[in-house]
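Assemble and predict.
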Amino acid sequence: MISSQKQAGALILPATAMVVLFLCLPLVLLFRFSLNRFVPGEFMVEALTLENYARFVSDPYYTSALLTTVVMAIGVTALCLVLTFPIAMYMKRASARTKSLLVLLVFLPLFVGNAVRAAGWMVAFGQQGVVNYVLVGLGIVDAPLTIMYSPTAVFFGILSINLPFAVLTLQSVLEGIDDNASDAAMSLGATPFEAWRLVVLPLAMPGVLAAGVLSFILTMNAYATPVLLGGPQFRMMAPIVASEVLDQANWPSGAAVSFSLMGTTLILTILINGYVARRYAYQR
Amino acid sequence: MVKGNSPSELVGRIAFHALVIGGFAVIVLPLVLVVWLSFVSDAILTVPPDGYSFRWYAEMFRQPQFMDGFATSLIVALVATLAGLALTIPASFVLARMAFRGRDAILHLLMSPLIVPAIVIGSALYMMFVEVEIRTGLPITGSVWGLAAGHVLLTIPWSIRLVSANLVGVNPSVEEAALSLGATPLATALRITLPIVWPGVVAAALFSFVVSFGNLEVSLFLVSAGETTLPIAVLQYLQWKINPTVAAVSVLQIVVVGTGLLLTSRFVNLARTV
C-alpha cells in the first residue's frame, strides 16, 4: 500500500523529527552546557571545561547523594524482586477474571502519578498517621515513631512505585513458561521450593533481570518520592538536578549532574547485567 | 501445583501468600489511604477521625490552583494525545509494514523518550526553550505549547508500540484487494485499514492521555507560576502540607486516570503493554 520509499519517508519523518528536535537536540545542548562555567551573578559563561564533572566526583555534597541513591536503588530492587516473584506467580495462576482485575489493580497506581502516591504514604507514616496508630494501639511501641522524612519512608515510597513495573515485566515472562516443567520436577520427587529454584527460576531469569534493571533505573531517577517523603535533609540525584536547574539557575552543574547520573546508571546496569549473566551461566 | 502436606511445605505456602498479600498492600495502600483521607471530616490528619464528610470535595472547587491545574492538564493531555497520534499512526504503518535500512535505528530513536530519565528530558527541554526564547522572542517557556510539545514526546513510544502491535496482525492482502478494485490509497487507509487497527488507535489515545495527564517530572520544568498542571499543583501543595483537600484533588486524578485505564483495558491486554 505504501508504494515508494519516498512515501514511506514522508510518513515516518514527522515522528522522527519530533524526537530529534525535542529530545536529541536538547540533549546535545544540555551536554554543551555541562562544559560551560557557572559564575554567580553572571549566570552561565561560555567555556570548555570539565570542572563541573570534576566537582561531581570530588564534592561530598554530590558523592554522598550519589551513594545514597545507589544504596537506595540496590535495597529497593532487592526487596522489589523478593515481592515481585510471588505476586507474578500468583497472577499467572489466577483465573482469567481475577487476573484482569489484578492487572488493573497493578496498573492504576502506575499512572496515577508519584505525588499522589507519596500523599498516601504521608497519611501512613505521619506522626499522627495510620502506621503509628496501629503500632501504638497494638502496644508494639510506646510513643509514635518518626517515619516521615526518613530514608525508610522514601524506601517504601519508591518500592511501591517500582513494584507494578517489576510485576508486569516478570509476569509476561512467567506466562511463557510451561507449568508442565515444574510439575514434572515435582513428580520426580522435588519439593515445590526445589522445583521453583531449579526449574522455574532459571527459566524466568531473563524476566527477573529485566524487572530488576527497571527497578534499579527507576530508583536512580526517582524525583517526587525523595522530595516529598525524604524531607530537605535527604538528598538523592534527581532532586539535585531539578534544584540546580530551577532553583539555583546553575545550568552547567545541573547539566553535568544529569549526564553523570545517566552515565552512572548505565555503567551499573551493565555491571549488574554482566554479573547476573556470569553467575547464572555458572549455576547451570 | 501439587499440594504437599509436610510442615515445611505448609510454611512455604504461608510465606508465599504472606509475600503476595504484603506486595499488593505496598502497591495499593497509598491509593486507599488517599481516598480514605479525602472523606475524613477533620481538617488535619487524625487517626481515628472524628467523622466523615464530603466537604473537602466542595472545598477543592474553591481552590483556584487545583481547578486551573485540572483545566491545564486536560487541555495539554488532549493536545498531546491528538498530536501524538497524528505523528505516530503514519510512522507505525511504515515500521510495521516495510523493511528498510535503518528501521531498527529509527524504532530505537522513537522509543528513546522512555529510556532517557524524565528529569533529564525536562531539564534539557527547559534549557532549549529558554535559549530559543532569548534568540527569537517567542514566549515558549512556561507556555501550554511548550508543555504540550514535551508531553507529545512522552506519548510517542507508547503509541508506536500499541498501534504497531495491532498493525502486525493485519493481513496486507485485504488492502491490496481494495486497491486492485480501484480504491485510492487514501480511501483504502481510511476505510479498510483504519477500522481494523481501531482498537490499537483507541488504546494508544487513552494511554497517551493517561501518560500526559499524570506526568510530573517533565512538566515540573515546563510550567510557569500561572500555568500549572494538576500533578504539579498537588506536588507543590504536598511540599507544604497534607490535608483532606489535597487528598480530594488526588482522588480526582485517580478517577480520571482510572477511567482512562478501564476504557483502555477493553481494547488491549494491559499486561502486554509495559
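Chain B has a mean pLDDT of 88.
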